[in-house]
Amino acid sequence: MSQLIIKNLSKKYPNGILAMSGIDLKIGTGMFGLLGPNGAGKSTLMRTLATLQSPDSGTIFFDGIDILNDPMSLRKVLGYLPQEFGVYPKESAFNLLNYFAVLKGIRSKNDRIKLVQEVLEITNLYDVKNNFVSDYSGGMRQRFGIAQLLLNNPKLIIVDEPTAGLDPSERKRFLNVLRDVSTKSTIIFSTHIVDDVKELCNNMAILDNGKVLLIGTPKFLTDSLKNNIWTRSIKSESLDQFVNDYRVLSSTFNVDDSLDIRVFSEDNLTSPFSHNSPRLEDVYFLALNSKHTLSNRD
Predict the structure, then answer these.
(1) Contact residues for 127 (Cβ-Cβ < 8 A; gap 6+)
(2) Does pLDDT of 285 surpass 90?
(3) In the chain, where the domains are located
(4) To bridge 81 with a disulfide, which of 159, 178, 262, 271 should be the other Cys (CB 3.0-4.6 Å)?
(5) What is the tens place of the pLDDT at every residue in 175-196?
(6) Would you give the DSSP letter of residue 238?
(7) pLDDT of residue 292
(8) CB 230 within 8 A of CB 269
């Protein structure tokens, strides 16, 4: 099985921003979720893994490849879908993929046609293969991005905020494609959307201010908050007071202008508080906003 090993990765930009600070991760085959708010350092890490920039210190190995000292060897087995990619000419998906296949060194026309048809099927774009990619919807363009990176049968796939801006149906179709691909590859899925990680990933890490706050399976991390999540309704004008008195993780408006709040507490809270099953979003907000830490580094 493939394994990506990241040790003590750090990067400070000339403006003084510490984008990565001593990042240590071990990532195997399947879907690994990298969850964090905008500005957490996720894109810096993704670009570093994709050999597009160098860290100040640290090491990265993938299947025996020293990525920082031998980037060309990694690129042969890498597929990368950045947050923003490509301005497409008025050209069909089929013709563009055929062109990309030529660039990737696939010389046989028959082999290219077979491969292009295969990746179009995988990404559910075969029926629109003759349409201009420039006319595709946002979700279709993202799926086309997956199609082009699959042309070299990558062992390591990096996708950076791929569902940002997609409508619910496009997001679901895109996630289904990633789910199917993840059975054979190591996929690092960077996002600030908790539901994406919950639906897809068999392992995950939460990153903020360039540091890994916690690592584990979504189930382990969620179960670790069992009996510690409490909910109640409050008046909206009381929120600041409750934030001062409790570890309020999140709040939701109701139609009557009241708020439902979710609170972390290891102590028993009295009525009108009531126990509630933990969610992955509780883990996320707790990691970002308190000193309470969780880890499962197996």
Answers:
(1) none
(2) yes
(3) 3-217, 227-276
(4) 159
(5) 888 888 888 899 999 998 898 8
(6) G
(7) 44
(8) yes
Q: 10 near 58, Cβ under 8 Å?
A: yes
Round to whole Å and give the CA distance between 277 and 288.
Answer: 20
Average pLDDT over the chain, rounded to whole? 90
Sheet holding 78-81, edge to edge: 78-81, 156-160, 186-191, 30-35, 203-208, 211-216
b or e along 102-115 (b: 16 or more beta carbons within 10 Å of the residue's beta carbon)? Answer: eeeebeeeeebeeb
Q: Which residue has the tokens 């706050």?
A: 213
Q: What is the pLDDT of residue 115?
A: 94
* CATH number for the domain formed by residue range(s) 3-217: 3.40.50.300
**Residue 54 in tokens:** 């160098």
Give the Cβ contact number of residue 176 at 10 Å.
15
The per-residue DSSP string of 77-146 comes to TEEEE-SS-----S-BHHHHHHHHHHHTT---HHHHHHHHHHHHHHTT-GGGTTSBGGGS-HHHHHHHHH
Q: Kindly list the distances between the CA atom of residue 204 and the CA atoms of 116, 285, 293, 297, 298, in Å, as whole numbers in the listed order.
A: 32, 15, 15, 10, 12
Angle, alpha carbons 237-241-244 (nearest 5°)? 145
* Identity of the amino acid at 137: S
Tokens of 150: 């699959």
